[in-house]
Amino acid sequence: MKKTYFKEITKESIGSEVEIQGWIKSKRVHSTVVFIDLSDSSGTIQCVLAKENNEVLFETISTVSIESAVTAVGTVRQSENENLEIKLSEFTVVSPSKEMSPKIREDFDIFDEKYTDHILSSRHLYVRNPKLIATLKARSEVVGYLHNWFRAEKFYELDAPVLTELPLYEDKTAIPLKVHNQDLYLTQCVGFYLESAVMGLEKCYNLGPSFRAEEGKSKRHLIEYWHIKGELAWVNRDEIMATVEKLIFDLVTFARTELEEIGEAIGEGITKDGVLPPYPRLPYPKAIELLQGAGFEITFGQSLNDDEERFLGQQYDTPFWIVGNPKSIEPFPYCIDPDDPRLTMTADLIAPNGYGELCGVAEKITDLQELDARMRDKGKDPSANPKYDWVREMREVGFAPHGGFGMGLERVMRWVFSHSHVKDFTAYPRVFGRRMRP
Questions:
Q1: 115 secondary structure, DSSP code
Q2: Spans of the chain below 50 pLDDT
Q3: Which of its termini does the chain have fewer beta carbons within 10 Å around, N or C?
Q4: 3-state SS assignment for residue 382
Q5: Which of 370, 193, 424, 214 is nearest to 303 (CA)?
Q6: Residue 310: enclosing H or E segment and its boundaries?
Q7: Cα angle at 205 between 319 and 282, to 5 degrees?
Q8: Please, are residues 200 and 216 in contact by the beta-carbon 8 Å criterion?
């Protein structure tokens, strides 16, 4: 088992002998000395060998290929530029590497769009790149933090099924499959399952995959992504929004405090947007009025596109809410606004600077007759859709006021880490229009 990671080699290690394992990032061969930069999951360290000290070892190191996996033994010392390095005494090639272009750990901008096709096609190799490693470390840290946050806020984790009969959104965006002659879908959202369990747990959450077969290539959409879902009993929309604001504030504070180094390794660092709640609220009708006044061709009842969200975001330096989405674009379980029956008791949290929607919240319908009316309104007549019977039955058994929120993990991380595309925050992204390989 590996005993020493490069980050653990400090000035206190000077003069001691260490055995290290890693991969060759680069090498520089001169007539009398060879330098090799080795990388592991914690960083990079330079190793050096003078030819006069061991000619056989010098030849081995001089000819080894970039990205080979190696084991090395040597003495820690300080170089002329005061960096730590290893003066080699032993060097073993554990596994050689074929040539790769660009070199996997080379200092190039792996997020540049000119590399996108090549990197996605060879993701199983380039996932080792330091910038991609940084995004995966960021994801691991954020997911760990989210679990801790939910538990500190007295939420219980619920493992909801991925296979379901019930698409929450339009059937055409659900991914169908057949299991034992039953027509099923990959889950679009675990909301139905959370709202069933919340009647006992009162606060529950799920971190898991969701699937949407939407035909779009925006920088904030994936076919397969991870959903941060929370459900609460005995709440209204304002209280759900306040819960989300606390989550966003706490998450960004954690990133700024604990993940700044990872953020810099990814590129632009942690978001500079303000996150102190409460966030501004823009009613949907007012948003439409502003957009129409600015020349956008949007009518009441339509959802906002990227350009429209970007325009509205120019007015804010913090996330902001668009409150009260029209019932024409929202799923049937969401409550109608009693003050304006054109709207629902929902809200979307939008990040400024073009990052777009981060989170959606909704009060859920508790009354069976109201649910049936909304199902018919959305083309899901209860009598013709028996698979929703258990969702309806919940409304017959002490169904308390409740609601929830949902946000895409990769989408939130894109904003927190000031990054260009959601695809870089998952190891193997599933992007519309590409063959799913690897």
A1: G
A2: none
A3: N
A4: helix
A5: 214
A6: helix 306-313
A7: 25
A8: no
Residues 6+ apart with CB under 8 A from 138: 259, 262, 263, 266, 413, 417, 425
Rounded to whole angstroms, how far apart are CA atoms 189 and 160?
9
Q: Which of 112, 107, 128 is nearest to 26 (CA)?
A: 107
Strand order in the sheet with 182-186: 163-164, 182-186, 175-179
Residues of the chain with CATH 3.30.930.10: 123-425
Q: Which amino acid is at 255?
A: A
How far is CA 22 from each of CA 71, 91, 190, rounded to the nearest angstrom?
Answer: 7, 11, 41
Joined together, the tokens standing for residue 370 give 């109201």
Question: What phi and psi, each to the nearest 5 degrees, are found at residue 88?
Answer: -75, 145
Q: Do residues 173 and 213 make contact, with C-beta atoms less than 8 angstroms apart?
A: yes
Query: What fold characterizes domain 123-425?
Result: BirA Bifunctional Protein; domain 2 (3.30.930)
Tally of CB atoms within 10 A around 79: 12
Would you give the end-to-end CA distance of the chain in angstroms?
A: 29
**In the chain, which residues fall in CATH 2.40.50.140?**
6-95
Per-residue confidence (pLDDT) for residue 80, from 0 to 100: 84
Picking from 409, 407, 436, 405, the residue whose alpha carbon sits closest to that of residue 425 is 409
Q: Kind and range of the H or E element at 418?
A: none
> Which residue reads 């606060």 in tokens?
203
Q: What is the pLDDT of residue 317?
A: 95
**Which residues have a Cβ under 8 Å from the Cβ of 294 and sit 6 or more positions away?**
311
H/E/C letters for each residue in 12-78?
Answer: HHCCCEEEEEEEEEEEEECCCEEEEEEEECCEEEEEEEEHHHCHHHHHHHHHCCCCCEEEEEEEEEE
Please name which of 205, 128, 126, 127 lies closest in space to residue 160, comparing C-alpha atoms.
205
CB neighbourhood size of 94 (10 A): 11
- Give the pLDDT confidence score for residue 226 in this predicted structure: 98
CATH code for residues 6-95: 2.40.50.140
The pairing of strands 281-283 and 320-323 is: parallel
Phi and psi at residue 104, to the nearest 5° = -60, -45
